[in-house]
Specification:
The chain has about 190 residues and is α/β, with parallel strands linked by helices. The chain is built from seven helices and five strands; from the N terminus they run H-E-H-E-H-E-H-E-H-H-E-H. The longest helix has 22 residues. The relative contact order is 0.12. InterPro entries: IolE/XylAMocC-like (IPR050312), Xyl_isomerase-like_sf (IPR036237), Xyl_isomerase-like_TIM-brl (IPR013022).
């Protein structure tokens, strides 16, 4: 995939940490083995890499994910904030804290709305059986969930964000074109402000 990316003259790839959260030590060990083999290929092809914390990967939380990215110790390996994933905590999903903590490693934001899944006394979503290891998040159009978008975009402006912003909505296959057009217009308006 790195070579195809280079053939397409694309300067950036995104990936997740993968692995299983209940086997995080094994996942992290596999991550470092993979990087040992892949970093020279990324360098040879001059492709940057963003590594993302994602629900149900061996690394699901912002802080340890940013720490792993920093431990890679390459200026071209960075961190994307996934906004809708609840990987930071707090009533706003922790996006301000996530972005500040990532600092100069924040080079990409995935943008979609979500509901606060622990709302309604933890009964916003009822999963069976109780204690299931399922991870919950949605990828909705801005305004269809509960993310504080004014605060989110204010945070990006405060940090003078100048990276990649992508709409990351998957919820509406039947209106994908309309959703994409709406998201492009809203994100462009917010980031130009």
């Amino acid at each position: 995939m790195i070579e195809i990316t280079a053939d397409l003259e694309c300067p950036l790839m995104n990936s997740e940490f993968n692995g299983r959260p209940e086997r995080s030590a094994e996942g992290e060990a596999a991550f470092w083995r993979s990087l040992e083999a892949l970093l020279p290929v990324f360098e040879r092809e001059s492709i940057a890499l963003n590594l993302e914390a994602h629900p149900d990967d061996f690394c699901e939380e912002n802080t340890p994910a940013v720490d792993l990215v920093r431990a890679v110790n390459r200026p071209w390996v960075n961190y994307p904030v996934l906004r809708p994933a609840p990987v930071g905590g707090g009533s706003d999903g922790g996006h301000r804290a996530m972005m500040r903590y990532a600092g100069d490693k924040l080079q990409h934001v995935h943008i979609a709305d979500m509901f606060h899944h622990k709302g309604s006394s933890g009964l916003r979503y009822i999963l069976s059986p109780p204690g299931t290891p399922a991870r919950i998040h949605q990828h909705l159009d801005i305004g269809q969930g509960e993310v504080d978008w004014a605060a989110f975009f204010d945070s990006l402006r405060e940090l003078k964000f100048d990276g990649v912003a992508t709409a990351c909505v998957f919820a509406w296959e039947e209106r994908a074109r309309e959703s994409s057009a709406f998201m492009l217009e809203r994100i462009t308006k917010e980031l130009a402000a």
